[in-house]
Structures are given as structure tokens and as C-alpha cells.
Amino acid sequence: MLIDSHAHLDFPRFNEDREEVIKRAKKEGVEYIVNVGADIKSSRRGLELSLYNENIFSTVGIHPHEADTVDEKAIKILTDLAKADKVVAIGEIGLDYYYDNSPRELQKRAFRLQMRLAQKLSLPIVIHTREADDDTLKLMKEENAEKIGGIVHCFASNLDMARASIDMGFYLGFGGLITFNNASKLRKVLKELPLERIVLETDAPYLTPVPYRGKRNEPAYIKYVAKKIAEIKNISLEELAKISTKNTIDVYNLDINI
Asked: For residue 257, what pLDDT is reported?
């Protein structure tokens, strides 16, 4: 049994075959999927998707690319959406200094406001951080993010960032990046990390793992991520599946039995 801890099945790239994608995932042993919100519209679509599929949960949140849309009204809408039973986290939220699609001060403000919302609602957070590790950690500490925990998604940083996040009670999400030929540094980082703090993700439709790199990603492909991580950690695929599944259930407080 596997869980995809981070996918975007509500995105338009799945409009033509969404139900088939969900069925393929199930066939490959992916019993549950967490659909992650990227803005208000995406959060609404993801919630609707989860309400019509018992094996899908959702998160609601506004990505740093859309940080300039985070205002009092947006927080009110997220608050209302987050009250649904199938919503398990606030995210994805954080900082992206690679693209800088929103001014950095607005990104920081949006990150803070959504972390505060998560604390108010007692929900974990899903963090996006790209070339912004120092500020991400600084804001996490200032906003007492260790009280709620969550996942640093699509982890691609160094060992110091990994350990600092784990020390604050966070899990690290690993996906298709770990299978790329140019990811040797990331594989070395992963080798040093405790299995008890690792969750699997696809970030579908992005970051498709080898051997399908270059094509649209989907939750069924998480098995290639799992195989690579099991190989790096020198454990069986079954053991990795068991541990990572438990981790995902724990971090999201999923109401499922294994």
C-alpha cells in the first residue's frame, strides 16, 4: 500500500482522463492520494474532488506564486474551505525565490498568514521552498510552526535544511527528483535521513520520475519513487511502503486503517 502525499489532480492537465488516472493509481497499489491546493480555485476543485472520491483527501492553500492574492477575504475563504472533513492541511504555502512570481515581502506575509491560519485550525502545513531555505526556516521558527508540523514538500535542499526541518517536527516529501541522473547530491542527503521522517509524493503532473521523465506525471508512478528510495536506503520495497504510509497517515492525521 502506498499513499501519494502530494498531487494536483485538479489541474487542467487531467481534465481529459482524471477518472482513469485515479483508477490506474489504485491498480498500482496507491490506495490514497492527497490533492494539494495552489490557490483559491484550485483548493475548491481539490476539495470537490475529495468529496466525490473516498480515497482522495485535500489541502487548501495559496502557493507563493500567488502570494499577492492573499488578503483578509482569501483567508476567510480558506478558513471556510478548511472546515470540510476531507481537508487535512493548509498548503501548499511558502517561499519561492527561484521564480519570484510575487514580491518577496508579499510571499513572506502570505506564508505567515497561512501558518497562523493553520495554527488556528490545528492543521499541519505543506511547505514549498525554493532557493529560500534561510527565510523559510526563519519564518517557521518565528511563527512557531513546530506546534503544528507538516511536510516540506519536494525536498531538494541540503542536509542542514533537512535536519532543521526534522528538528521542528516536520516530514520531508521526496518525489521524482530523487530518480533523476543529476540528483546525486539529493540522494546523499536522503541516505542520511531517518525513514520515520520521509513521505512519498509525485507532485503530479510535474517532476515525473525516470523512466517516464518528460511525460505528464501521475500518482501511479509513485512506485518508481518508492523503488529508488528503497534502493538508496537499502531496504525492501515492502518495508519502505509500510513506513512511508504510516508517516503520511500520521502527519496528515488521516482517518484510515492500515
From this structure: 77
Is the pTM above the cut of 0.70? yes
Could you give the CA distance from residue 82 to residue 22 in angstroms, rounded to a whole number? 23
What does the pLDDT look like over 166-208, one tens digit per residue?
Answer: 999 999 999 999 999 999 999 999 999 999 999 999 999 999 9
Dump pLDDT digits (tens) for 102-126: 999 999 999 999 999 999 999 999 9
Instruction: Catalogue all structural domains in the chain, each as residue range(s) with its CATH number.
Output: 2-252 (3.20.20.140)
SS3 readout for the chain: CEEEEEECCCCHHHCCCHHHHHHHHHHCCEEEEEECCCCHHHHHHHHHHHHHCCCEEEEECCCHHHHHHCCHHHHHHHHHHHCCCCEEEEEEEEEECCCCCCCHHHHHHHHHHHHHHHHHHCCCEEEEEECCHHHHHHHHHHCCHHHCCEEECCCCCCHHHHHHHHHCCEEEEECHHHHCCCCHHHHHHHHCCCHHHEEECCCECCCCCCCCCCCCCCHHHHHHHHHHHHHHHCCCHHHHHHHHHHHHHHHHCCCCCC
Nine-digit cell string for 55: 480515497
At CA 66, angle to CA 60 and CA 71, rounded to 5?
75
Q: Which residues pair with 60 in a beta bridge?
A: 90
Using CA atoms, how far residue 183 sits from 127, 179, 232, 244, in Å, is 21, 7, 12, 21
